[in-house]
């Protein structure tokens, strides 16, 4: 393996806290009380549904930022949150995801991994979202490979094949790193090696919908220091 390609939303970035806090802050302005954590998860589910496999039959007509915006509109209308202003909307669908915090076990490990591998963000997130969150969290990627630029979104095989091509590597020389079986299983079918990293808090107290790794993955790690150790990299 010469390259580690990282799912970024969820595996690297804590979207749940970001969306929950933004929804709660907007609600407090209007004296509204809701299950903000539950609505954050619903926003995530719907935005994924609007993004996964785009480009299968026709060119994508929007990116993941647009998916956040459209999913938020549905959540607001269906939950009686019409008091939210345009500024509230933007604070949730744009400001929050573009300023997400990285999971605390990742930042110190990434430089060590980069000493031994090409480390690329391979994501359905928009280029701008990866740029903004990298700058906020001090992350240095060797490459940012967004499905936005590929024109084929995960889990379409063309997305994985194109990433390997861009890196001038064979698929088996790439290892997809993620906390989601659907992403890793698709990568495996395209010839990638796969590494499952547990993110038990990705969906908050509700827990992840698919917490148990597929045993076919090449590496199953409890966290990023554990991933590094299994790759033979010493972490202090």
Q: Which structural class is indicated by helix and strand composition?
A: alpha/beta
CATH A-level architecture of the largest domain: 3-Layer(aba) Sandwich
How far apart are the termini? 23 Å
The fourth-level CATH homologous superfamily of the largest domain is: HAD superfamily/HAD-like
The percent range for strand residues is 5-15%
The helicity comes to 40-55%
Q: Overall pLDDT, averaged?
A: 97
Protein name: Haloacid dehalogenase, type II
Organism: marine metagenome
GO molecular function, one term: hydrolase activity
Keywords: Hydrolase
Give a structural overview.
This protein has 2 domains: 3-14 and 102-230, Rossmann fold (3-Layer(aba) Sandwich), CATH 3.40.50.1000; 15-99. It has helices spanning 15-29, 36-49, 64-78, 86-95, 110-114, 127-137, 147-150, 157-166, 181-189, 224-230, and strands spanning 3-6, 118-123, 143-146, 174-178, 193-197, 219-221. The model has no long low-confidence stretch (mean pLDDT 97). 43% of the residues are buried. The protein is α/β, with parallel strands linked by helices. It has a 6-stranded parallel β-sheet with strand order 3-2-1-4-5-6, with helices on both faces. GO terms for molecular function: hydrolase activity. InterPro entries: HAD-like_sf (IPR036412), HAD-SF_hydro_IA (IPR006439), HAD_sf (IPR023214), PGP-like_dom2 (IPR023198), S-2-haloacid_dehalogenase (IPR051540). Keywords: Hydrolase. This is Haloacid dehalogenase, type II.
């Amino acid at each position: 393996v010469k390259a580690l390609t990282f799912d970024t939303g969820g595996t690297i970035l804590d979207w749940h806290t970001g969306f929950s806090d933004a929804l709660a802050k907007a609600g407090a302005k209007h004296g509204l009380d809701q299950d903000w954590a539950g609505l954050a998860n619903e926003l995530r589910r719907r935005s994924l549904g609007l993004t996964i496999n785009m480009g299968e039959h026709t060119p994508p007509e929007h990116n993941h930022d647009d998916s956040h915006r459209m999913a938020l509109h549905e959540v607001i209308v269906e939950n009686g949150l019409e008091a939210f202003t345009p500024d509230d909307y933007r604070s949730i669908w744009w400001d929050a995801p573009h300023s997400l915090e990285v999971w605390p076990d990742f930042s110190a490990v990434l430089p060590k991994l980069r000493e031994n591998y090409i480390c690329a963000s391979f994501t359905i997130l928009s280029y701008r979202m990866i740029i903004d969150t990298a700058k906020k969290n001090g992350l240095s990627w060797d490459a940012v490979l967004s499905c936005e630029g590929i024109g084929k979104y995960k889990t379409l095989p063309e997305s994985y094949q194109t990433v390997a091509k861009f890196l001038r590597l064979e698929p088996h020389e790439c290892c997809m790193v993620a906390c989601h079986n659907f992403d890793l299983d698709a990568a495996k079918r395209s010839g990638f090696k796969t590494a499952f990293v547990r993110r038990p808090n990705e969906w908050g107290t509700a827990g992840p919908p698919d917490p148990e790794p597929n045993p076919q993955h090449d590496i199953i790690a409890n966290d990023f220091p554990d991933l590094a150790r299994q790759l033979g990299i010493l972490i202090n």
